[in-house]
Amino acid sequence: MNAFQRTEAAMQRRTAFTLIELIVVIIIIALLTGLLIPAIRDAKEASWRPTCQNHLKQIALGCHNYHHVHGSFPSAYAINEEECPLYSWRVNILPFIEQQKLYDIFHLDESWNSDHNLALFENRPVIYACPQQYRFEGQPGDCPYGMIVGPNTISNGPNSVTISKVTDGLANTILVAETRKNIPWPSPTDISFASLAMGVLKRNDSRALEDGISSRHRKEETAVVFADGSVRMLSPKIKPEILQALATINGGEKVDGEW
Questions:
Q1: What is the predicted pLDDT for the residue at 219?
Q2: Which residues in the chain come in under a pLDDT of 70?
Q3: Could you read off the pLDDT of 97-118 as tens digits, one per residue?
Q4: 162 Cβ neighbours under 8 A, 6+ residues apart
Q5: What is the pLDDT of residue 130?
Q6: pLDDT of res. 256
Q7: What is the CA radius of gyration of the chain?
């Protein structure tokens, strides 16, 4: 083998080695990407969860400021002379969550989906949004937070409730909870008390899209804010009867503190 042939053979061996190196590098990059993507997702989730909790705190503060001015918590929804629901408590507390301008242009004598009010649908306040809300779930004006509506709850339909009526204690009574139910923010729609019989629903439970307490976040625990303004995480392991007891204002139930 002459010098030229030896040089050519060496170049071929070096080319083959370089291709192997490239394949190894590609594999390493793929492995690192596979590790980094979940880490980035978890980091985003870690920042999004406190945002949701802060929104719930602001909503509770808005409800308390409403109580200070009007003498009661906001009712679940307003009604017209025919007792038909018009719009939700989310509209009524707008002046107390720094949304006075939006409140002023909302027609309070019309339904939430009148031509005028529906045009305001996508003007959803930031605190009525969850950063984890998926684009394929609902519309830009949907809200992932709802009151529990039913007999003996803080939001018993059009009937307002005063703090003095919450004899179970503000710290033991749910005010607003996360939900995967798609609720247009001005709509007189919330979480039904009856749905609590299902307990806290997991995120992948299809029933959560219809009604009930459930979170859009990857962790199974669901955030709720109690009437004293404290935000707590409820596990799907909580017994439905305890969940129902926490939703009533005057049941007198003995609730174990380990829920």
A1: 73
A2: 1-17, 32-48, 132-139, 218, 254-259
A3: 999 999 999 999 999 999 999 9
A4: 67, 71, 72, 73
A5: 84
A6: 61
A7: 26
Query: Could you give the C-alpha distances from 45 to 35, 131, 206, 220, in angstroms and in order?
Result: 16, 9, 22, 12
216-238 pLDDT, tens per residue? 886 778 999 999 999 999 999 99
Give burial (CB, 10 Å; 0-12/13-18/19+) of 62.
Answer: buried
Domain boundaries of the chain, sorted by first residue = 46-247
Non-local (6+) Cβ contacts of 192 within 8 A are 148, 149, 150, 211
What is the secondary structure of 65-132 as a DSSP string? HHHHHHSSPPPSEEE-TT--EEEEHHHHTGGGTT-HHHHHHS-TTS-TTSHHHHTTTT---GGG--TT
Each as own residue / partner, the long-range contacts of residues 45-49 (CB below 8 Å, 24 or more positions apart, any chain) are 45/132, 45/217, 45/218, 45/219, 48/130, 48/131, 48/132, 48/217, 49/217, 49/219, 49/223
Nearest alpha-carbon partner for 97 in 129, 130, 126: 126
Closest by CA to 56, choosing from 133, 141, 146, 119, is: 146
Name the burial class of residue 65, with classes exposed (0-12), middle (13-18) and buried (19+) by CB atoms within 10 angstroms of its CB. Answer: middle
Taking the C-alpha atoms of residue 238 and residue 16, their distance in angstroms, rounded to an integer, is 61
Structure tokens at 141: 């004006």
